[in-house]
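tokens incoming
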């Protein structure tokens, strides 16, 4: 699961920075997904250590009377632009000293390598699968790592257009295992009607669109 909307009035790329909590709308999203999943056979709930992920996972853990676990491997991808506004024609990209970070989109050169994200996310997913063996687990993480591990599972290239990630706020990307092997991948958006239109996958950029980044 991706976390819900974050309170980010400055419109920065918050990344792994602490202190970014769910907005009121984000809390509604978390409650919506908790209601949606409350009837499932879920025996393990685990989240990234960042506040927004913990706050998203808490309603579900409470609804299921489960302890909420934390796994550092579910954390957001590292990014050199953390704490800055980021967009074409404004923010960090306006400064030529930052252009050196944009030289290799395949790695990527501005943050944690995609391959490293796959390794840690697969490790976290495997641990959750084992903790809930024979049942279901929910891992709450962040857009980029979720999209990258899904791309890996579906045998797609890891580099991509960020605007086309199918990983809306509070969405569910589901991995079904047979033994230790992923046999199918699913996707759903239980809180889609709560998501602002400009934050849905494929939406056209808007002025000040950096406020929609993050993860």
């Amino acid at each position: 699961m991706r976390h819900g909307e974050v309170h980010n009035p400055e419109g920065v790329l918050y990344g792994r920075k602490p202190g970014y909590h769910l907005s009121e709308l984000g809390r509604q999203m978390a409650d919506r997904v908790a209601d949606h999943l409350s009837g499932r056979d879920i025996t393990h709930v685990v989240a990234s250590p960042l506040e927004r992920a913990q706050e998203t996972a808490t309603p579900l853990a409470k609804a299921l009377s489960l302890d909420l676990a934390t796994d550092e491997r579910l954390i957001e991808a590292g990014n050199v632009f953390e704490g800055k506004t980021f967009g074409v024609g404004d923010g960090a990209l306006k400064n030529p000293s930052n252009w050196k970070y944009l030289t290799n989109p395949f790695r990527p050169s501005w943050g944690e390598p995609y391959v490293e994200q796959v390794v840690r996310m697969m490790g976290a997913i495997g641990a959750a699968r084992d903790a809930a063996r024979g049942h279901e687990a929910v891992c709450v993480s962040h857009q980029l790592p979720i999209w990258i591990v899904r791309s890996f599972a579906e045998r797609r290239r890891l580099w991509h257009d960020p605007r086309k990630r199918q990983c809306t706020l509070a969405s569910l990307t589901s991995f079904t295992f047979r033994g230790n092997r992923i046999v199918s991948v699913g996707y759903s958006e239980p809180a889609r009607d709560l998501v602002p239109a400009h934050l849905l996958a494929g939406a056209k950029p808007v002025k000040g669109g950096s406020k929609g980044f993050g993860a």
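note: The beta strands are 42-47, 68-70, 86-87, 90-91, 136-140, 172-178, 181-188.
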